[in-house]
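Lab notebook, bench 4. The sequencing result for the construct came back, and we need a structural model before the next group meeting so we can plan mutations. Quick request posted to the team channel:

Model the 3D structure of this chain.
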Amino acid sequence: RVFLGWVNLQQMTRIAANHAAEHASAWGTPGDPAEKAEYQAKVRNDARLINCRLPNPLPDPVLSGGTALGAPVTVGLSCEFDIITPVISNVIGGTILVSAETTYPVKEGVVATVPGGGAPIIPAPEAKFTGSPQSGWGPSLQVTFTNDSTGAPSSQTWRFANIEGGTGTGSVNPTISQTTGPQTVTYGCTGTPGQTCTFQVSLTVGNAGGTDTETKPADYITLTVPPEPPAPIAEFSGTPRTGVEPQTVNFSFVDLRGGTVTYTRYEWDFNGDGAPDATGPNVSRAYPTDGVYDVSLTVTDSTNATNTLTKKAYIVISNKICTVPAFGNSNPNRAQRTWADAGFTTQVQFQPGNYKKINYQSLTGGTINRQPGGCDAVITVGP
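Done. Here's the predicted structure in C-alpha coordinate form:
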Protein backbone atom coordinates (compact mmCIF):
# COMPACT_ATOMS: atom_id res chain seq x y z
CA ARG A 1 0.00 0.00 0.00
CA VAL A 2 2.82 2.43 0.90
CA PHE A 3 4.69 1.51 -2.27
CA LEU A 4 1.63 2.28 -4.40
CA GLY A 5 1.31 5.53 -2.45
CA TRP A 6 4.92 6.39 -3.31
CA VAL A 7 4.26 5.68 -7.00
CA ASN A 8 1.28 8.05 -6.93
CA LEU A 9 3.32 10.61 -4.94
CA GLN A 10 5.98 10.50 -7.65
CA GLN A 11 3.27 11.18 -10.22
CA MET A 12 2.06 14.08 -8.07
CA THR A 13 5.50 15.68 -8.06
CA ARG A 14 5.65 15.43 -11.85
CA ILE A 15 2.27 17.07 -12.22
CA ALA A 16 3.18 19.75 -9.68
CA ALA A 17 6.56 20.43 -11.32
CA ASN A 18 4.95 20.65 -14.75
CA HIS A 19 2.37 23.13 -13.38
CA ALA A 20 5.10 25.22 -11.75
CA ALA A 21 7.19 25.16 -14.95
CA GLU A 22 4.24 26.52 -16.92
CA HIS A 23 3.54 29.27 -14.31
CA ALA A 24 7.05 30.03 -13.04
CA SER A 25 6.42 33.80 -12.79
CA ALA A 26 4.00 33.13 -9.92
CA TRP A 27 7.06 32.54 -7.70
CA GLY A 28 9.02 35.47 -9.15
CA THR A 29 8.65 39.20 -8.54
CA PRO A 30 6.00 40.51 -7.90
CA GLY A 31 4.51 36.97 -7.99
CA ASP A 32 0.95 35.75 -8.38
CA PRO A 33 -0.86 34.76 -5.14
CA ALA A 34 -3.87 33.37 -7.05
CA GLU A 35 -1.67 31.04 -9.09
CA LYS A 36 0.17 29.93 -5.96
CA ALA A 37 -3.15 29.14 -4.28
CA GLU A 38 -4.25 27.10 -7.30
CA TYR A 39 -0.99 25.15 -7.14
CA GLN A 40 -1.53 24.38 -3.46
CA ALA A 41 -5.13 23.31 -4.09
CA LYS A 42 -4.22 21.06 -7.02
CA VAL A 43 -1.52 19.21 -5.10
CA ARG A 44 -3.71 18.80 -2.02
CA ASN A 45 -6.57 17.45 -4.11
CA ASP A 46 -4.25 14.83 -5.59
CA ALA A 47 -2.96 13.93 -2.11
CA ARG A 48 -6.53 13.38 -0.92
CA LEU A 49 -6.92 10.65 -3.52
CA ILE A 50 -3.90 8.68 -2.25
CA ASN A 51 -4.76 9.16 1.45
CA CYS A 52 -1.63 10.85 2.74
CA ARG A 53 -0.97 13.99 4.79
CA LEU A 54 1.08 16.83 3.32
CA PRO A 55 2.65 19.69 5.31
CA ASN A 56 0.60 22.88 5.52
CA PRO A 57 1.48 25.04 3.71
CA LEU A 58 3.26 23.13 0.98
CA PRO A 59 6.86 24.15 0.25
CA ASP A 60 7.22 26.37 -2.81
CA PRO A 61 8.86 25.01 -5.94
CA VAL A 62 12.60 25.72 -6.06
CA LEU A 63 13.58 27.89 -9.06
CA SER A 64 17.36 27.77 -8.73
CA GLY A 65 17.90 29.52 -12.04
CA GLY A 66 15.08 32.04 -11.73
CA THR A 67 12.11 32.19 -14.08
CA ALA A 68 14.06 32.29 -17.34
CA LEU A 69 12.96 29.92 -20.07
CA GLY A 70 14.62 26.54 -19.57
CA ALA A 71 15.75 27.18 -16.00
CA PRO A 72 15.20 24.23 -13.63
CA VAL A 73 12.09 24.02 -11.46
CA THR A 74 12.26 21.43 -8.68
CA VAL A 75 9.29 20.20 -6.67
CA GLY A 76 9.90 18.01 -3.64
CA LEU A 77 6.98 16.57 -1.67
CA SER A 78 6.91 14.61 1.56
CA CYS A 79 3.70 12.83 2.58
CA GLU A 80 2.82 10.94 5.75
CA PHE A 81 1.06 7.59 5.32
CA ASP A 82 -0.68 5.54 8.00
CA ILE A 83 0.59 1.98 8.58
CA ILE A 84 -2.52 -0.16 9.01
CA THR A 85 -0.84 -3.59 9.27
CA PRO A 86 -0.27 -4.30 13.00
CA VAL A 87 2.80 -6.50 12.46
CA ILE A 88 4.56 -3.67 10.62
CA SER A 89 3.28 -0.79 12.73
CA ASN A 90 4.52 -2.50 15.91
CA VAL A 91 8.03 -2.37 14.47
CA ILE A 92 8.27 0.99 12.68
CA GLY A 93 5.36 2.88 14.21
CA GLY A 94 1.94 3.93 13.04
CA THR A 95 3.08 6.29 10.28
CA ILE A 96 5.82 6.57 7.67
CA LEU A 97 7.08 9.63 5.79
CA VAL A 98 7.53 9.12 2.04
CA SER A 99 9.26 11.65 -0.24
CA ALA A 100 9.59 12.23 -3.98
CA GLU A 101 11.17 14.92 -6.18
CA THR A 102 10.94 16.00 -9.83
CA THR A 103 12.69 18.70 -11.87
CA TYR A 104 11.29 20.27 -15.06
CA PRO A 105 12.56 23.21 -17.17
CA VAL A 106 10.65 26.50 -17.13
CA LYS A 107 8.17 26.45 -20.02
CA GLU A 108 6.40 29.75 -19.40
CA GLY A 109 7.17 32.25 -22.15
CA VAL A 110 8.08 29.71 -24.82
CA VAL A 111 5.40 31.10 -27.15
CA ALA A 112 6.12 34.73 -26.36
CA THR A 113 9.77 34.37 -27.41
CA VAL A 114 8.86 33.23 -30.92
CA PRO A 115 9.76 35.97 -33.45
CA GLY A 116 6.75 37.68 -34.95
CA GLY A 117 4.72 38.62 -31.92
CA GLY A 118 3.92 35.63 -29.73
CA ALA A 119 0.97 33.94 -31.46
CA PRO A 120 1.24 30.18 -31.04
CA ILE A 121 3.07 28.43 -33.85
CA ILE A 122 1.38 25.19 -32.84
CA PRO A 123 -2.36 25.22 -32.06
CA ALA A 124 -3.39 23.94 -28.66
CA PRO A 125 -4.63 20.34 -28.64
CA GLU A 126 -8.20 19.31 -27.84
CA ALA A 127 -8.66 16.77 -25.05
CA LYS A 128 -10.99 13.87 -25.80
CA PHE A 129 -11.26 10.41 -24.26
CA THR A 130 -13.57 7.46 -23.83
CA GLY A 131 -13.88 4.98 -20.98
CA SER A 132 -15.42 1.53 -21.44
CA PRO A 133 -17.34 0.07 -19.72
CA GLN A 134 -18.67 2.95 -17.66
CA SER A 135 -20.82 0.88 -15.27
CA GLY A 136 -20.95 -2.55 -13.68
CA TRP A 137 -21.15 -4.54 -10.46
CA GLY A 138 -18.84 -4.21 -7.48
CA PRO A 139 -16.67 -5.16 -5.78
CA SER A 140 -14.40 -4.29 -8.72
CA LEU A 141 -14.61 -3.18 -12.33
CA GLN A 142 -11.81 -2.75 -14.85
CA VAL A 143 -12.26 0.21 -17.18
CA THR A 144 -10.17 0.93 -20.27
CA PHE A 145 -9.65 4.58 -21.20
CA THR A 146 -8.71 5.55 -24.74
CA ASN A 147 -7.03 8.88 -25.53
CA ASP A 148 -8.85 10.36 -28.56
CA SER A 149 -7.27 13.82 -28.27
CA THR A 150 -6.49 15.78 -31.42
CA GLY A 151 -3.87 18.43 -32.19
CA ALA A 152 -0.74 16.36 -31.50
CA PRO A 153 -0.51 16.68 -27.69
CA SER A 154 2.97 16.11 -26.24
CA SER A 155 1.86 15.65 -22.64
CA GLN A 156 -1.17 14.24 -20.89
CA THR A 157 -2.37 13.93 -17.31
CA TRP A 158 -5.18 11.57 -16.39
CA ARG A 159 -7.09 11.94 -13.13
CA PHE A 160 -9.26 8.89 -12.63
CA ALA A 161 -11.10 9.93 -9.46
CA ASN A 162 -11.39 13.71 -9.21
CA ILE A 163 -14.68 13.31 -7.34
CA GLU A 164 -15.90 10.20 -5.56
CA GLY A 165 -19.58 10.00 -4.67
CA GLY A 166 -22.45 7.60 -4.18
CA THR A 167 -23.55 5.75 -1.06
CA GLY A 168 -20.94 2.97 -1.03
CA THR A 169 -17.22 2.96 -0.24
CA GLY A 170 -15.21 3.47 -3.42
CA SER A 171 -11.59 2.96 -4.41
CA VAL A 172 -9.51 3.45 -7.55
CA ASN A 173 -6.07 2.32 -8.71
CA PRO A 174 -4.20 4.12 -10.13
CA THR A 175 -5.49 7.61 -9.36
CA ILE A 176 -3.18 9.51 -11.71
CA SER A 177 -1.23 8.70 -14.88
CA GLN A 178 0.83 10.67 -17.37
CA THR A 179 1.12 8.10 -20.17
CA THR A 180 -0.97 8.41 -23.32
CA GLY A 181 -2.80 5.10 -23.04
CA PRO A 182 -4.80 3.04 -23.38
CA GLN A 183 -5.20 3.16 -19.61
CA THR A 184 -6.59 0.27 -17.56
CA VAL A 185 -7.99 1.36 -14.22
CA THR A 186 -9.53 -0.78 -11.47
CA TYR A 187 -12.48 0.77 -9.62
CA GLY A 188 -13.86 -0.72 -6.42
CA CYS A 189 -17.14 -0.40 -4.54
CA THR A 190 -18.26 -2.09 -1.32
CA GLY A 191 -21.28 -1.64 0.92
CA THR A 192 -24.80 -2.98 1.24
CA PRO A 193 -26.67 -4.31 -1.81
CA GLY A 194 -27.88 -1.55 -4.10
CA GLN A 195 -25.40 1.08 -2.90
CA THR A 196 -23.38 2.80 -5.60
CA CYS A 197 -19.98 4.41 -6.03
CA THR A 198 -19.45 7.09 -8.67
CA PHE A 199 -16.25 8.54 -10.06
CA GLN A 200 -15.39 11.57 -12.18
CA VAL A 201 -12.54 11.36 -14.69
CA SER A 202 -10.58 14.07 -16.49
CA LEU A 203 -7.79 14.29 -19.06
CA THR A 204 -5.51 17.30 -19.57
CA VAL A 205 -3.37 17.44 -22.70
CA GLY A 206 -0.85 20.01 -23.77
CA ASN A 207 1.77 21.05 -26.27
CA ALA A 208 3.70 24.22 -27.10
CA GLY A 209 0.44 25.88 -28.15
CA GLY A 210 -1.35 25.44 -24.81
CA THR A 211 -3.41 22.96 -22.81
CA ASP A 212 -6.96 21.65 -22.80
CA THR A 213 -8.96 19.57 -20.33
CA GLU A 214 -11.98 17.33 -20.76
CA THR A 215 -13.82 16.52 -17.53
CA LYS A 216 -16.56 13.91 -17.58
CA PRO A 217 -19.68 14.05 -15.34
CA ALA A 218 -19.33 13.12 -11.66
CA ASP A 219 -21.04 9.76 -12.28
CA TYR A 220 -19.04 8.89 -15.40
CA ILE A 221 -17.97 5.61 -13.79
CA THR A 222 -20.67 3.93 -11.67
CA LEU A 223 -20.37 0.71 -9.67
CA THR A 224 -23.28 -0.94 -7.86
CA VAL A 225 -23.03 -3.38 -4.94
CA PRO A 226 -24.76 -6.58 -6.18
CA PRO A 227 -27.78 -8.17 -4.45
CA GLU A 228 -27.30 -10.87 -1.83
CA PRO A 229 -28.01 -14.54 -2.65
CA PRO A 230 -30.35 -16.15 -3.54
CA ALA A 231 -31.54 -13.18 -5.62
CA PRO A 232 -30.77 -13.41 -9.36
CA ILE A 233 -28.00 -11.27 -10.74
CA ALA A 234 -27.57 -10.15 -14.35
CA GLU A 235 -24.05 -10.29 -15.74
CA PHE A 236 -22.80 -10.77 -19.28
CA SER A 237 -19.85 -10.55 -21.62
CA GLY A 238 -19.61 -9.36 -25.21
CA THR A 239 -17.06 -10.37 -27.88
CA PRO A 240 -15.61 -8.37 -29.51
CA ARG A 241 -16.30 -5.14 -27.62
CA THR A 242 -14.53 -2.95 -30.18
CA GLY A 243 -14.44 -3.11 -33.96
CA VAL A 244 -14.97 -1.38 -37.27
CA GLU A 245 -18.40 -0.98 -38.86
CA PRO A 246 -20.17 -3.22 -39.71
CA GLN A 247 -19.46 -5.40 -36.69
CA THR A 248 -21.33 -8.35 -35.15
CA VAL A 249 -20.95 -8.86 -31.40
CA ASN A 250 -21.76 -12.10 -29.54
CA PHE A 251 -23.22 -11.71 -26.04
CA SER A 252 -23.38 -14.38 -23.33
CA PHE A 253 -24.98 -14.46 -19.89
CA VAL A 254 -22.45 -15.00 -17.08
CA ASP A 255 -23.78 -16.94 -14.08
CA LEU A 256 -22.30 -15.30 -10.97
CA ARG A 257 -24.44 -17.54 -8.76
CA GLY A 258 -22.64 -20.69 -9.91
CA GLY A 259 -25.78 -22.65 -10.77
CA THR A 260 -27.57 -22.05 -7.46
CA VAL A 261 -30.27 -19.95 -9.15
CA THR A 262 -32.61 -21.28 -11.86
CA TYR A 263 -32.95 -18.64 -14.55
CA THR A 264 -36.02 -18.75 -16.78
CA ARG A 265 -35.78 -15.61 -18.92
CA TYR A 266 -33.00 -13.52 -20.46
CA GLU A 267 -34.07 -10.26 -22.13
CA TRP A 268 -31.56 -8.08 -23.97
CA ASP A 269 -32.10 -4.37 -24.71
CA PHE A 270 -29.68 -2.92 -27.24
CA ASN A 271 -31.33 0.43 -28.03
CA GLY A 272 -32.40 1.65 -24.60
CA ASP A 273 -36.15 1.66 -25.21
CA GLY A 274 -36.90 -0.82 -22.41
CA ALA A 275 -38.26 -3.46 -24.80
CA PRO A 276 -36.34 -6.71 -25.38
CA ASP A 277 -34.51 -6.89 -28.71
CA ALA A 278 -33.38 -10.48 -28.18
CA THR A 279 -33.94 -13.32 -25.69
CA GLY A 280 -31.89 -16.24 -24.51
CA PRO A 281 -28.59 -16.71 -22.66
CA ASN A 282 -26.52 -16.30 -25.86
CA VAL A 283 -27.40 -13.77 -28.56
CA SER A 284 -25.75 -11.79 -31.35
CA ARG A 285 -26.18 -8.18 -32.38
CA ALA A 286 -25.09 -6.48 -35.61
CA TYR A 287 -23.79 -2.91 -35.39
CA PRO A 288 -23.89 -1.43 -38.91
CA THR A 289 -22.66 2.07 -37.99
CA ASP A 290 -20.04 3.57 -35.75
CA GLY A 291 -20.88 4.72 -32.23
CA VAL A 292 -20.66 3.98 -28.52
CA TYR A 293 -23.43 1.66 -27.38
CA ASP A 294 -25.04 0.70 -24.05
CA VAL A 295 -26.22 -2.88 -23.47
CA SER A 296 -28.81 -4.05 -20.90
CA LEU A 297 -29.73 -7.53 -19.72
CA THR A 298 -32.71 -8.40 -17.53
CA VAL A 299 -32.84 -11.90 -16.03
CA THR A 300 -35.75 -13.64 -14.31
CA ASP A 301 -35.50 -16.65 -12.02
CA SER A 302 -37.93 -19.46 -11.15
CA THR A 303 -39.51 -17.37 -8.37
CA ASN A 304 -40.22 -14.58 -10.88
CA ALA A 305 -37.61 -12.31 -9.26
CA THR A 306 -35.73 -10.09 -11.74
CA ASN A 307 -32.46 -8.21 -11.94
CA THR A 308 -31.17 -5.80 -14.59
CA LEU A 309 -27.64 -4.74 -15.51
CA THR A 310 -26.88 -1.91 -17.93
CA LYS A 311 -23.30 -1.51 -19.10
CA LYS A 312 -22.81 2.03 -20.37
CA ALA A 313 -20.51 2.53 -23.36
CA TYR A 314 -19.89 -1.22 -23.44
CA ILE A 315 -19.55 -1.54 -27.23
CA VAL A 316 -17.34 0.88 -29.21
CA ILE A 317 -17.62 0.71 -33.00
CA SER A 318 -15.33 2.84 -35.17
CA ASN A 319 -16.05 4.33 -38.56
CA LYS A 320 -14.50 2.45 -41.45
CA ILE A 321 -11.69 4.64 -42.78
CA CYS A 322 -10.36 4.42 -46.32
CA THR A 323 -7.38 6.24 -47.76
CA VAL A 324 -7.64 7.47 -51.34
CA PRO A 325 -4.92 5.80 -53.44
CA ALA A 326 -2.63 7.82 -55.71
CA PHE A 327 -3.32 6.82 -59.34
CA GLY A 328 -0.57 8.91 -60.98
CA ASN A 329 0.86 7.21 -64.09
CA SER A 330 -1.02 3.99 -63.34
CA ASN A 331 -2.87 1.82 -65.87
CA PRO A 332 -6.62 2.64 -66.10
CA ASN A 333 -7.37 -1.09 -66.35
CA ARG A 334 -6.12 -1.54 -62.79
CA ALA A 335 -7.93 1.46 -61.30
CA GLN A 336 -11.01 -0.40 -60.05
CA ARG A 337 -8.95 -3.12 -58.37
CA THR A 338 -6.77 -0.49 -56.68
CA TRP A 339 -9.87 1.41 -55.54
CA ALA A 340 -11.51 -1.73 -54.12
CA ASP A 341 -8.30 -2.84 -52.40
CA ALA A 342 -8.33 0.49 -50.55
CA GLY A 343 -11.71 -0.47 -49.12
CA PHE A 344 -14.01 1.67 -51.26
CA THR A 345 -17.35 0.20 -52.31
CA THR A 346 -18.13 2.38 -55.35
CA GLN A 347 -17.23 2.19 -59.03
CA VAL A 348 -14.41 4.32 -60.43
CA GLN A 349 -15.68 6.88 -62.96
CA PHE A 350 -13.52 7.35 -66.09
CA GLN A 351 -13.23 10.49 -68.20
CA PRO A 352 -13.78 9.81 -71.94
CA GLY A 353 -10.80 9.26 -74.18
CA ASN A 354 -8.18 6.70 -75.12
CA TYR A 355 -5.34 6.90 -72.60
CA LYS A 356 -2.91 4.41 -71.13
CA LYS A 357 -1.89 6.35 -68.03
CA ILE A 358 -3.92 8.11 -65.37
CA ASN A 359 -2.73 11.65 -64.65
CA TYR A 360 -5.90 13.11 -63.16
CA GLN A 361 -8.04 12.09 -60.20
CA SER A 362 -10.89 14.05 -58.63
CA LEU A 363 -9.90 13.08 -55.06
CA THR A 364 -6.35 13.71 -53.92
CA GLY A 365 -4.28 10.64 -53.16
CA GLY A 366 -3.66 10.13 -49.47
CA THR A 367 -6.96 11.75 -48.45
CA ILE A 368 -8.70 9.85 -45.66
CA ASN A 369 -12.35 9.33 -46.50
CA ARG A 370 -14.75 9.15 -43.55
CA GLN A 371 -18.10 9.03 -45.26
CA PRO A 372 -21.07 8.07 -43.05
CA GLY A 373 -21.93 4.42 -43.58
CA GLY A 374 -18.53 3.42 -44.89
CA CYS A 375 -16.13 4.17 -47.71
CA ASP A 376 -18.65 5.20 -50.34
CA ALA A 377 -16.88 8.14 -51.95
CA VAL A 378 -17.00 8.47 -55.73
CA ILE A 379 -13.82 9.19 -57.68
CA THR A 380 -13.25 10.18 -61.30
CA VAL A 381 -9.94 9.54 -63.07
CA GLY A 382 -8.65 10.67 -66.45
CA PRO A 383 -5.66 11.55 -68.62
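The first strand starts at residue 72 and ends at 82.
Will bring this to the meeting.
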